[in-house]
Specification:
The complex is a heterodimer. Chain A is mainly alpha-helical. Chain A has three domains: 29 residues; 125 residues, no CATH class; 36 residues, no CATH class. In chain A, helix 5 crosses helix 6. Chain B is mainly α. Chain B has a domain of 108 residues: Cytochrome c-like domain (Cytochrome Bc1 Complex, Chain D, domain 2), CATH 1.10.760. Chain B contains ten helices and four strands. In chain B, the strands form two sheets. Chain B has a two-stranded antiparallel sheet with strand order 1-2. In chain B, a hairpin with a 2-residue loop joins strand 1 and strand 2. The longest helix of chain B has 19 residues. Classes of the chains: A mainly alpha, B mainly alpha. At the A-B interface, helix 1, helix 2 and helix 5 of A face helix 1, helix 5 and strand 4 of B.
């Protein structure tokens, strides 16, 4: 009997298996890498109507977050400042008031219509988030928004996924800070151990107990 | 044959990566939401956009003649009424004290206007404690120091960037000014300074004034003003004021 199948076909099943395994691994790897908020959200940096820079206002001028985000410690929602807050300094005859970059601010001040800032950080409507409970309990803006003081255009620095919330809720001692440093974006713990030690102390002293049960956030 | 597969596969991966990039890369593309019906429900949250109202705002402006939630309702002004003098401020602040609840009051009392009758009143309308002063310092540093400077000399950082004419709070005119008038300046602004009625709560405005008074006092303080134990640290060591012998 002649060779009905050519010789190379002996390895065909093995080769097919290897190819399928590689394709499978590629798919899993791709989904793992690309299909989570770590890829889909982190780095989201939309164009804003005014090229407002936190690097100028926070780092260069040393302004406190609460001058503009004035309700962050008394309300669940951290407000975007109203136009008047900008006009305090950029009003007619004041700092750079005739700069073309500030034209939308002047227009908003004259017409009374809001500046259409593009919102960046959003949790879904089925989850409950509250700023005041976090910043009053030793969690800094830095832990959730990254180095805002260095951003000339704000981008989303953290995934804001449920796993990310829980990472902290399960071990808040890794993030808690002295109350005086909550609004200081330049403060960093000296070392991981120092952070742990301090965090444990605050956690016990203040009786910090973030919710990890579903009803805490899905209420 | 497997070789061709691997070459093809690598090219495909390269293509995907070159299109999609890496984690953390900046992008103007909004995050994808596949089933957004529960994620973005048909309700308004704070400061959200509305496509119902013509001005795109879900937060409505005050209707003239109404009192927004969270504001105290205006009380009928009684020239001799109980709300009139500073000592009864507790009523207006509520039982919870000055920081018990959020206050953006619209009442016609001294606490909310700085006026007693037609004149500026003076005095902080609640008891000033160490906590009030600390709060005042914090609020002053957040809201005022950028322009007026840490001790109120009118030399805050913004004065170096082209904001001229910032008042020096150490000047005699402001030292002599009634507390109520300063309250009014914080609330409604004065000349080129804008008001802070929408961002600073009423008790905080008074706390800022208390701290401002302390700054003014500290500017001309002498050793005698300090408590004795603290003053001691600043006393010069008691060596007699004679020059060393070789310099005489």
């Amino acid at each position: 009997m002649s060779n009905f199948f050519p010789r190379w076909s002996n390895f065909l099943p093995l080769k097919l298996l290897v190819s399928l395994a590689v394709i499978g691994a590629g798919l899993v790897g791709g989904v793992w890498y690309y299909f989570t908020p770590k890829y889909t959200r982190v780095g989201y940096q939309p164009d804003q109507p005014v090229p407002f820079s936190h690097a100028i206002h926070v780092q260069q001028l040393g302004m406190d977050c609460r001058y503009c985000h004035s309700f962050v410690e008394i309300a669940g929602h951290s407000n975007i400042p109203n136009t008047q807050t900008c006009i305090n300094c950029h009003g007619q005859g004041k700092v750079k008031w005739d700069s073309p970059r500030l034209a939308p601010v002047q227009e908003s001040w004259q017409t009374g219509l809001p500046i259409p800032w593009v919102r960046i950080h959003k949790v879904p409507d089925y989850a409950y988030f509250n700023h005041a409970v976090h910043v009053n309990r030793g969690v800094s803006c830095y832990s959730c928004h990254g180095a805002i003081n260095e951003m000339s255009v704000v981008y989303e620095a953290k995934p804001l996924s449920m796993a990310w919330c829980l990472e902290c809720h399960r071990a808040p001692e890794n993030f808690l800070r002295p109350p005086s440093e909550i609004y200081n974006m330049e403060w960093h713990p000296k070392s991981f151990d120092a952070q742990q030690e301090m965090g444990m102390k605050f956690k016990q002293e203040w009786n910090v107990n973030p919710p990890v049960t579903c009803g805490g956030c899905h209420r | 044959m497997l070789r061709y597969f691997f070459i093809g596969f690598s090219l495909l991966v390269l293509l995907i990566v070159s299109i999609t990039g890496f984690r953390g890369w900046k992008s103007k593309r909004p995050p994808i939401e596949i089933f957004p019906d529960m994620v973005r429900q048909a309700k308004y949250k704070a400061q959200s956009e509305s496509d119902f109202y013509a001005d795109d705002r879900s937060a409505r402006q005050h209707v003239p003649g109404t009192v927004p939630l969270g504001y105290s309702s205006p009380q009928v002004y009684q020239p001799d009424g109980p709300h009139h003098d500073a000592s009864s401020a507790g009523d207006v602040m509520g039982d919870a004290g000055p920081y018990g609840h959020i206050e953006f009051s619209a009442s016609p009392d001294y606490v909310a206007t700085g006026r007693i009758g037609n004149q500026w009143g003076t005095g902080i309308p609640f008891e000033v404690t160490a906590a009030t002063m600390k709060r005042g310092r914090e609020r002053y540093n957040i809201n005022c120091a950028v322009c007026h400077g840490a001790v109120g000399m009118g030399n805050g950082i913004v004065s170096k960037y082209g904001l001229n004419g910032i008042a020096n709070q150490q000047q005699q005119r402001i030292r002599d000014m009634a507390d109520g008038e300063i309250f009014n300046t914080i609330t409604w602004g004065k000349n080129s300074m804008m008001g802070y009625a929408s961002t600073i709560q009423v008790p905080d405005r008074w706390a800022i004034i208390a701290y401002l008074r302390a700054l003014q006092r500290a500017e001309h303080a002498t050793l005698q003003d300090l408590p004795e134990d603290i003053a001691k640290q600043y006393q010069k060591p008691s060596i007699d004021n004679k020059l060393p012998a070789n310099l005489q």
